[in-house]
Design goal:
Shape: elongated
Structural class: mainly alpha
Distance between the termini: 48 Å
Low-confidence stretches: none
Number of helices: 2
Helix content: 55-70%
Order of helices and strands: HH
Mean pLDDT: 87
């Protein structure tokens, strides 16, 4: 946990308020969670999907 606090302190959001830090970190973690969920779904159901590319 000390490493995470040190990274946050030395990052661009370090001098901001705790409320704003929490908002930024929750937004980042929700994006990462969505990406991991999409990866799992793609790996699980990818062979059965019919993906078409077109204009």
């Amino acid at each position: 946990m000390d490493v995470v606090k040190e990274i946050i302190k030395n990052s661009a959001i370090g001098p901001l308020s705790n409320w704003y830090k929490g908002l930024v970190l929750s937004l980042f973690s929700s994006i990462v969670g969505m990406l991991l969920t999409m990866l799992v779904l793609l790996l699980k159901y990818g062979p059965e999907m019919n993906i078409q590319y077109g204009y």
